[in-house]
Prior knowledge:
The chain is of the alpha+beta class. It folds into 2 domains: 80 residues, no CATH class; 133 residues, no CATH class. Strands 1-2-3-4-5-6 form a 6-stranded antiparallel β-sheet, with helices on one face. Strands 7-8 form a two-stranded antiparallel sheet. It is flat, with a radius of gyration of 22 Å. It starts with 6 loop residues before the first strand and ends in an 8-residue tail after the last helix.
Amino acid sequence: MTRRGEVRACGYIWKPWDDGVATHVHDRFLVTTWGFGSINKSKVFVTYPKSRDPMARDKIGICLAPGKTREEAMQRGISWVEKYRNSGGPESPEKLFPKLFRDWRIIYRNRLDILGHLFFTNGNGYSWLDGAVVANSDGKPRKSRRLPKGAPKWLSPEFFALKDYRLQDRIQRAHFDREEAKMEIGPLPDDGKPRHFYPICQYSLILCIPDDVRPDWLKVAYEAALCLRDRQDPSPPKYSLEDTTRPLENIKHGKRIVAELEAKYPYLKPSA
């Protein structure tokens, strides 16, 4: 028997939560769902006491694909929890990086592109969880969009004559999807030249490495810190020539982080 406002579904009792309902699964997982227009959203919060989240949050939220019904959204949350637990936790860099190269060819051309995005970029869609970097969504790659039947070619006179701006957008997206599909899958060779990395801030994952960091993820975090120290271009970026401080601040961050990691984990430091 359930209390008022509670729902029994998918083998669990769901209690009122914000604008929807929620249930605890295996203690540390809170599965939530709520209606949003014609769909039902789902999000899993994972309790992570070791988190060094800059906002002092000890729960990491994972957004999942919406369901057409509330029960579908509920089951997606529960299935994500079971899959996460049964797989032994987050993926290793060796498993994650090839997927990123395959699914996002425009963004990730070489290893440094991935390191820069994961560890330096603010709001990059990733968080620390259980000592590893994980996507804070279910991470499914987008489906390739096809050119609508009978639609004009991108940038053709007929394309610019269209009054349907949504159709223009579909045509443009389909064009770039086709071009991306033709691109070689990385990693491509790194030219070794200096880079302009995203400005480091308190939300950058390189500043939030947890104490329970896994050895495989510590290794790539250290690699990223070395790149920040040694590969950051000290000159102002072309898109912001008046910004003379951020590149130098990045280098300072890199030096400090490398020193801190080597002091805390002496085995990282290359032997003389």
